[in-house]
Write a structure and sequence with these properties.
The structure is a single chain. The chain has helices at 5-31, 35-48, 57-76, 103-114, 119-128, 133-143, 147-174, 190-199, 214-218, 221-228, 258-268, 289-293; strands at 183-185, 204-206, 232-236, 253-257, 311-316, 321-326, 331-337, 340-345, 382-386, 391-394, 399-404, 408-413. The protein is α+β, with helices and mostly antiparallel strands and 432 residues long. Among the domains are: 10-76; 179-413, Cupin (Jelly Rolls, Sandwich). The strands form three sheets. The protein has a six-stranded mixed β-sheet with strand order 1-2-10-7-12-5, with no helix packed on it. 26% of the residues are buried. Bound molecules: 2-oxoglutaric acid. 2-oxoglutaric acid is lined by residues 314, 320, 322, 327, 331, 333, 340, 400, 402, 412. Residues 274-432 form the JmjC domain.
Length: 432
């Protein structure tokens, strides 16, 4: 059938606009790396700021969903040259014989002295790396009187004070006989929930939230495929090849059609290589709106009107592991299909999880390298398995590492009707 000439012209105009926009976005991103990411963040914030009762809200939601799709497609299609790695802190035998004491080594000496490594052990590391013993010894001795190092020592005392405050508070928490057990219980009243779990910063698993959720009867991989298989979603892919897959999650984004992804999960067996995580913005897209209709009563202190903006679904095979990290807000995570094992560490133990970069810890809770991360040996890890129908409440800043024990479908939401915006000052040392 031939197209109506008027429609044809209009379609061509829309197509031309989309093409121009895509080209301009790509050029802007090339010239200013991260540009599209910032525009996406701005659009997400603008969208969040539109009140629920705004006239024509579904239309506005659809406009934002389309906008985000265009932006994400442009972002995904750009190939960035690999960024150079940060230089690693020098390790034994990295440098040639009689290497000079470079600035890298001076920084290494300062950082390791701040960690209270002994001058003798540092000297043997440096000589083993081929540095002249007399030069190494002199550099180690000199650092103590270096004015910049002395300033770092003074500031370290301020940090140590805060560390002792949190260590004492943790001691109090852990002295409770029930500290090591994550409670599983029916939803308490709003007052008790807010007082005991939100303000008390105590994780809990709620066993009855999903009693009336259509999702419990309906959601399955096959149902996802049947109802939404034609839609695009953003997944994380190629994670097995990257030990830092979570920190590098932007590099692992891939847009795929949900149907073939469901087939891949069903056929692929246990693996951590691919996972549809909360980073996907699927629930912001009108195509996925029916999923939200399957969500019934919410836990105490949730704002229903914010559910669409502040929720995500997760889908993946058995074997996905989300490494140890903390979130920047409080959230609920409801298991609809399959079980997940959560391993939790108190925020008051943050100084012992080697949080050198962002919200991440390099420690694998299942297999901690205590030679490299000895303080982690002092940490108490709390364990809980969340079964289908159960809901984990994760209070502020709790560290968690999460393993899917089965093919898993879950729904997470941060729409508390209490202030849930927090600000963190994150370190960015990636070479420790
Ligand atoms: O389910 C997972 O794999 C991770 C969940 C998580 O980290 C979260 O909801 O914050």
């Amino acid at each position: 059938m031939s197209a109506d000439p008027v429609d044809w012209t209009q379609n061509a105009q829309v197509g031309a606009m989309a093409y121009l926009l895509h080209t301009l976005l790509q050029e802007a991103e090339r010239q200013n790396r991260g540009f599209i990411g910032k525009v996406i963040e701005g659009a997400v914030d603008d969208h969040k700021g539109i009140p629920a009762g705004t006239p024509n809200k579904p239309f506005v939601d659809a406009v934002f969903a389309e906008t985000l799709q265009i932006l994400r497609r442009s972002q995904a299609s750009i190939e960035h040259p690999a960024l150079p790695e940060l230089p690693p802190a020098p390790r034994p035998r990295e440098l040639g014989a009689q290497a000079p004491v470079s600035d890298d080594w001076l920084q290494w000496i300062a950082e390791n002295r701040l960690r209270e490594c002994t001058p003798d052990s540092m000297l043997s590391t440096m000589t083993a790396a081929g540095i002249d013993a007399a030069q190494a010894k002199a550099a180690i001795a000199r650092i103590e009187t270096d004015p910049a190092f002395r300033a770092a020592r003074r500031m370290q005392k301020v940090e140590r004070k805060l560390e002792s405050v949190v260590a004492n508070l943790q001691k109090l928490w852990a002295s409770s006989p029930r500290y090591g057990v994550i409670e599983k219980r029916k939803s308490p009243s709003r007052d008790e929930f807010v007082e005991r779990y939100v303000r008390g910063c105590r994780p809990v698993v709620l066993t009855d939230v999903t009693k009336d959720w259509g999702a419990m009867k309906r959601w399955s991989p096959e149902d996802l495929k049947r109802r939404f298989g034609h839609l695009d979603v953003e997944i994380q892919d190629g994670r097995d090849a990257d030990p830092n897959y979570e920190e590098n999650k932007l590099a692992h984004r891939k847009i795929v059609q949900l149907g073939p992804f469901v087939d891949r999960v069903l056929a692929g067996g246990p693996t951590n290589d691919y996972y549809l995580t909360a980073n996907n913005e699927a629930l912001r897209s009108p195509g996925f709106a029916p999923l939200l209709e399957d969500i019934g009563r919410l836990p105490p202190a949730c704002d229903r009107s914010q559910l669409g903006h502040r929720s995500s679904f997760w889908f993946g095979p058995a074997g996905t592991t989300t490494p140890l990290h903390h979130d920047t807000l409080m959230l609920f995570h409801t298991q609809v299909v399959g079980r997940k094992r959560w391993r939790l560490v108190s925020p008051l133990e943050t100084p012992k999880v080697y949080n050198y970069n962002g919200v991440f810890s390099p420690v694998d809770v299942d297999n901690p390298d205590l030679a490299r991360y000895p303080l982690f040996g002092e940490v108490t890890v709390l364990d809980v398995i969340v079964e289908p129908g159960e809901t984990m409440f994760l209070p502020l800043a709790w560290w968690h590492q999460v393993l899917s024990m089965d093919i898993s479908l879950s729904f997470s939401y941060s729409n508390l009707d209490l202030p849930n915006d927090f600000v963190y000052q994150n370190p960015d040392i990636r070479n420790w």
